[in-house]
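Structure ticket #2291
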Amino acid sequence: MIPEHATSAAARSSGAFGPPGTGRRPVVGVSLKLYFGLAATRKWLTDVAALQGALAALPRPVDLFVLPAFPALADARELLSGTDIAYGAQNVHWAETGAWTGEVSAGMLAEAGARYAEVGHAERRRHFGETDATVAAKAGAATRAGLVPVICAGERHDAGTEQAVEETLVQVRAALGGTGPGSEVIVAYEPVWAIGAREPAPAQHVRTVATAVGGCLRDHGVPGRVIYGGTAGPGTFGRLAGSVDGLFLGRLAHDTASLRRVLEEVAAATAPAPLPLRP
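Resolution: structure written out below.
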């Protein structure tokens, strides 16, 4: 049985409460998947760390986290030290200890300084047979270790918005069933058919599904944020602002200049309007 968890101070500090547009802090995440070797990852992390000045100068704070491969977590700890940029892992096991050859526990990730753990990505489901139950167990392990699970969810085929909402909510509800009450989460809405495509999913489609996911989080009393992934990059967030809290990036963030543009676009689109001048 999963024990109850109190709402974390980190969740409060990140502003991860309420619907989009009510003060919840925007967030941008990047998963490197297996595109880079170790030396290339170190170079990329060095370039990301150099974005700290630009991050601090944004008109509104934006949380940024990166998910390199397991062997690069020590590099992330070293190279991102002294910045506001968090890091985490692209996968986690549901068990804390035991005879699980090749697996990495949430507790070990926390010891390595990780803050986030990605669970449920479509590629994990397709290539490694992960199910809703697997994702729920991993999300629960992450929250018990004090990590924020980045729960990936989205429909397989472009079969219409109504079906997309239904299929995505089944995945989200299952994953939330593994977490304790009040556990902070991020849901990355990623329609599978849009991952690696030429263009992101249509904006109205994303807005409808993301709004439904946000309602699901509120119904579960979860301090969560919703981000969009699926060929996301510069120019994507402006069409989605108000319905999502940020973006989940892949290949389009390999160029850190593009990543910087995304951060600037997210901050600009979510910054409060200036107060009118008094007569």
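Closing remark: The first helix runs from residue 9 to 14.
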